[in-house]
Backbone:
């Protein structure tokens, strides 16, 4: 148990640092800054306390906000992802995720990638609509969500296969 | 009462979500309508130092390029100095100096979001104050917004809230330089009346109406122009001189007379 907490703290700090120091400066093709820290919501233990998970997600978003001077955009996006995660999980893995012996190991790859893609989609939709905050730029929002989403999904899939947690 | 408490306990996650979402929405809306947050921004001790360390490492990678740029500027300044007709002797009396210049280094750049802020490595201790103008060797960059002891954040001209007085070089027609968040190489100059003759390629410089920037600091050239919806003013696309992606050394300009101008203006509008 202690091990899991420790692991998550390390993850939290490392993800914040990689996001603000590397991926916020990537500017791939001019404007794409992938938000790899969304993988935190993918990695976070399924059976943890939901309220705690939401508070932690809010904090994660808030710290990244402070670093990138986009106050409360990342926070609200992360919070929404954390809140919506159980619904998304039920959608992707069916009812059996609520059973005790559920783990990512007995799911298919397609299910996992859909799960990750949905998390990223929710996060980016909230983030970019709030960032631009006008319906006049609707196409711009869609364009940003789509391009950033694809790159983020590719990177997150890479990360999750590189550092796959073995004991969860 | 028991039922209400039970109801709240049952839906505590939804309530928590609403509560935290409300907090972040309030902060977001406030940062839309007013300046950047005073308490949480990248000029603070922790964030500033993390960015400072990272920039210490990465600044070695483009030292050569940066040096060439500085040498080029020195060249230009020397040429101006040697060619100045009946060279004016530098005013030594500090009360005659209108503008004070400081140099600083960028520790964090940003140009992709609709509201971009950059962070520099000089702060209160080095004499940086709010509302100082920030320029590079090529053109203007923005205005200082928040200052901590050793760092400061600058509202870039690539910010939808930015609004800078600008004019067409060698004329006195002035307008406002704004940004539509679409492309980081172009900004928009609005409020230039229809009767003004325009040519693609004309240079746009800062106007003398602001108490932040001195007159005639280069901004960019006209890329294209058309009339706005009311057909009485031009919307001009200005291609910026500054390569906003690649900036390292900047200069801060302080107008010594700003306090006086501000005080005078505020008494005039109060009456």
Residues:
């Amino acid at each position: 148990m202690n091990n899991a907490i420790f692991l998550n703290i390390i993850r939290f700090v490392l993800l914040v640092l990689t996001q603000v120091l590397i991926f916020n400066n990537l500017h791939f093709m001019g404007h794409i800054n992938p938000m790899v820290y969304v993988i935190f919501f993918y990695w976070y233990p399924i059976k943890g306390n939901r309220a705690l998970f939401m508070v932690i997600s809010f904090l994660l978003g808030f710290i990244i906000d402070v670093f990138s001077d986009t106050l409360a955009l990342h926070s609200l996006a992360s919070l929404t992802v954390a809140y919506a995660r159980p619904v998304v999980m039920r959608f992707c893995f069916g009812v059996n995720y609520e059973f005790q012996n559920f783990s990512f190991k007995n799911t298919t790859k397609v299910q996992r990638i859909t799960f990750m893609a949905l998390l990223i989609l929710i996060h980016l939709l909230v983030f970019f609509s709030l960032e631009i905050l006008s319906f006049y730029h609707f196409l711009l929002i869609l364009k940003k969500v789509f391009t950033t989403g694809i790159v983020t999904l590719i990177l997150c899939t890479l990360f999750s296969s590189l550092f796959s947690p073995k004991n969860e | 009462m028991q039922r209400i408490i039970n109801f709240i306990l049952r839906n505590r996650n939804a309530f928590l979500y609403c509560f935290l979402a409300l907090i972040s929405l309030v902060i977001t809306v406030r940062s839309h309508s007013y300046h950047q947050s005073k308490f949480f921004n990248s000029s603070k001790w922790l964030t500033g130092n993390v960015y400072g360390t990272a920039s210490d490492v990465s600044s070695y990678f483009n030292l050569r390029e940066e040096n060439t740029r500085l040498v080029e500027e020195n060249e230009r300044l020397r040429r101006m100095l040697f060619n100045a007709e009946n060279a004016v002797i530098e005013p030594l009396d500090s009360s005659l100096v209108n503008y004070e210049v400081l140099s600083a280094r960028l520790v964090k750049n940003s140009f992709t979001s609709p509201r971009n802020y950059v962070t520099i490595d000089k702060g209160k201790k080095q004499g940086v104050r709010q509302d100082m103008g920030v320029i590079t060797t090529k053109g203007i960059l923005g205005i200082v917004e928040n200052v901590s002891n050793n760092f400061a954040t600058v509202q870039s001209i690539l910010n939808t809230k930015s609004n800078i007085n600008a004019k067409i070089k060698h004329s006195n027609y002035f307008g406002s330089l704004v940004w539509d968040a679409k492309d980081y190489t172009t900004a928009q100059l609005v409020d230039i009346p229809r009767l003004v003759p325009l040519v693609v390629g004309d240079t746009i410089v800062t106007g003398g109406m602001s108490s932040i920037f001195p007159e005639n600091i280069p901004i960019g050239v006209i890329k294209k122009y058309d009339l706005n919806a009311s057909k009485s003013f031009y919307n001009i696309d200005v291609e910026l001189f500054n390569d906003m992606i690649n900036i390292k050394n900047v200069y801060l300009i302080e107008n010594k007379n700003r306090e006086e101008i501000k005080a005078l203006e505020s008494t005039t509008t109060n009456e």
Remarks:
- The interface with chain A takes residues 12-13, 16-17, 20-21, 23-25, 27-28, 31-32, 36-37, 40-42, 44, 47, 50-51, 54, 109-115, 117, 119, 153, 181-182, 184, 245 of chain B (CB under 8 Å).
